[in-house]
Structure formats: C-alpha cells, structure tokens
Amino acid sequence: MAHAEHCMDAETFLSAARESVVLDVRSPSEHAQGHLPGAISFPLFLDEERAVVGKTYKQVGQTEAIETGLGIVGPKLQALANRARELFDAQASPKPLLLYCWRGGMRSGSVDWLLRTAGIPTVLCDGGYKACRSHFIHVLETPRPYVVVGGMTGSAKTEVLHALHHQEAQVLDLEGLAKHFGSAFGNLEAHAQPSTEQFTNLLAWQLMALDKEATARPIWVED
User: Fold this and answer.
1) How far is the C-alpha of 97 from the C-alpha of 84, rounded, in Å?
2) Residue 191 pLDDT > 70, yes or no?
3) Is 101 an annotated catalytic residue?
C-alpha cells in the first residue's frame, strides 16, 4: 500500500495512540490475541467473513476475493461510519481517529477511505500492527536497570511497589499487567488473563511511558 500523507511510522503512531481514539480494524479473534493497549475493536470483517475472503483468494484469486469482500462490507458501510462518527464526536478535544490492521494494507486503507469520505479525519499506521509489534519487541530487548523486590507470598511486596510509585519511582506491576494472581491472595476479582502476546504489548507499553533514557533511573519490579 502506498504511503498516505496521513500515515505515521509505528513509533510515532504509538506515541499518538496514548492520547487518541485507536481503532483496530482486524477481525475480533486477531484483536483478542493481541492489540495496542486501549485500542477499540472495529472489525471490517468478522472472523467467518475474513475466512470466506481468504478462501476465495486461495482458491480463485485476488480479484474475486476483493469482489467477495466488497459484497460483505457494502451493507455495513453506513453502520461503520456512524459508529466512527460517535467515537470521534465523543472526544473532549477532537483528534483524528487512528487506524491499523495487520500490515497497514487493504483493510485499514478501506476503512480510512470510508471515514474520510464521511468527513472523519484519520491517521494510518505504516506497517500496521506487525510494525507496532516489532517496535514493542525492540523496547523489551533494550537493557534497563531493573531492581527486583523479593520476598515470600503475602509479604507485602505489592504494597512496597505502590509506596515506591507514590514516591514517583519507576515501577512495573508485572502481576497486575498479567492479571496473574497465582497465589491464594490473588485474582480476587477474577479478571481474565491476557494472552502472552497481549502481556508483552502491555509491558512494552508501560516501559515506553517511563524515562526516555533507559538508564536514567532504576525500574522496580516484583519477583
């Protein structure tokens, strides 16, 4: 897909995503497996619809697959535009809606065309979710000065981290990110655990919010 003038690279897109409405136009199952933190599932195709288009592409060809996709999407255009308008208008300070699909290809390009035709400003992610995942992995692989708070289960390690956080120390709540309260003291509210992929997304997202210079201050974590 040709680069649009309203297209950001992954790092810039992720920075803008912290203060914008982000729409994940991939299928619901793709979104469930892993997505940008805070992104809203806004599928162009449902899982079964995507499967039909993919099967047509493999068995018949690209042109026929595009025609099949158009036939599926056509009746949904008005509803998609209406929902996007509601999300845009609900912002306290109107900003373009940020869109991404798997690789920044036809799905996000199609939704981009629809919303801009409807008068809704948008921004695309060059390389899509795949590029964002690559950036997340780069963030996770960057050496950082971690300090581990150790202790037995129930020894108030989490409370120590909270106290450090209140003192403006850099803290990563790994247990909270994973919603992994494996001990008898945990998961009292029964939150669903994220996938491994989504956990790494959340971890990288939180690391990106810390000091830009990775070695500036220690990062406190629980063992």
Assistant:
1) 8
2) no
3) yes
Closest by CA to 37, choosing from 176, 203, 219, is 203
Give tens-digit pLDDT for 21-56. Answer: 999 999 999 999 999 999 999 999 999 999 999 999
For residue 135, what is the DSSP state? H
Task: Provide the pLDDT for residue 210.
Answer: 86
Q: Are residues 43 and 104 in the same domain?
A: yes
> Per the residue annotation, which of 7, 101, 125, 132 is the catalytic one?
101
pTM, full prediction: 0.87
Q: Are strands 97-100 and 219-222 parallel, antiparallel or unpaired?
A: unpaired
pLDDT of residue 174: 83
Q: Is 11 found in the same domain as 56?
A: yes
HSE-CB for 33 with a 13 A CA cutoff: 10
The SS3 of residue 19 is coil
174 Rama class: left (phi>0) / alpha (psi -120 to 50) / beta: alpha
Same domain, residue pair 96 and 151: no
* Residue 109 neighbours by CB under 8 Å, 6+ apart: 1, 4, 124
Range of the domain at 35: 7-135
